Every structure is written in C-alpha cells, then in structure tokens.
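[Archive record]
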Amino acid sequence: MTSAVSIKAMTPRGRERAERILAAATAVFLEQGYGAATMGEIGRRAGGSMQTLYRLFGSKEGLFQAIMAQKGATVYGQMEDPAIYEKPPEQALFELGIRLNELILNPETLATHRIVMLEGPHHPELQRIFHDSGPGRTRQVLARYFAAECQRGRLRLANVDAAAGQFLDMVKGAYFLPAILGRLDASTEIDIPGSVRQAVDIFLYGALTR
C-alpha cells in the first residue's frame, strides 16, 4: 500500500503516475461515493494499466487511505502550524477556529465528510482512516497545546483530550451542520470571525456575566 510519504520518494515519472491515479480516485469517490466506486472506473479515468494501479495502492481501501494521508498532509496540516501554538490561548484558539471553519466549509472537504458519514457505518475502516488522517490528528495537536498551557499555568483543564474535542465541536458548530445538509446558500449570512470569537470567549470564560 502506498502513502503520500512514499509517493514523494518516487521518481518524477512514478510520482506523476501516482498523483494522476489519486486525482482520478478522488473524483470518482466524490461523484459516486465510496461503496459504488470501482477500481475499474478509477483506472479508466487515470489511464495506464490496472496492474500499476493495484501495485501502487493494492485496493480501493488503499487508495482511500492514500488520499486521506495526502489530504492530512496538505489540508489538515494547516491546523498544525507551530506558529499558532506558540501564542496565548485566546489568540491561538481564535486563529485555529478561523482556519478550521475555512477548511470544513470547503466544498471538497464537505463532500468527503458526506461520504464518510453516509457510508462509514457500512465501511468502519473508512471512518478510522478518515478520523486518523484528519480530525483526529487535529484534536491530538490541540490536546498537546492544552497540556502545555496547563503546565504554564494559563489554563486549568481536568481532561485535555476531552477539552480539545469540546472546543473543536463548539467552534465549527455554527455552520458545519447546515453546510453538510446543503442549507448554506448565497442568502445565508455567514460571520466566521464573529462566530469563532464567541466560541473562544465561551470556552475560555463561560457565558455568565463577569
């Protein structure tokens, strides 16, 4: 099974071939869903031999894993910018929240989430691959930041992993579900900075008057 890391180690020609296959697979998964997608259709769109397709990725699951690894490095990797986690909580969480909303409201990211939500119960491994490559790694990075801030005395959290999950759910809550359901359109008023600022304020300070 090939990953994004091993693709980088290929020759330029091999890398171009692998990237072409991944692009074709991404298009087929988004158009047809994971369950209905076939290696034959992916191979047809990518061109080249089916033997090469199977040699590089092994199976449809291997292709999906490679795509998720690639997205994890290029898309979710934006959530791991060390410069963010060197800042105090109020500033770090605000910048993180802005990036998260820009990420999850991207049409291709939304389509990927829909695939996993709809077909995950029938393909549990699909859920694990998606979680570990994207949302799960973001939660782990944030939990480590919370742990460091607790050691510095700037935060007091009983469970940093649970707190990371709770913050991420809060900060994406305003728009993610309507977007997944297709209820965001040109008439919808979207204020990502305002929504993120409120989520950060409630998470850090609560909603009671101070």
Summary: The chain has a mean pLDDT of 88. DSSP finds twelve helices and no strands in the chain. The CA atoms of residues 199 and 205 lie 10 Å apart.
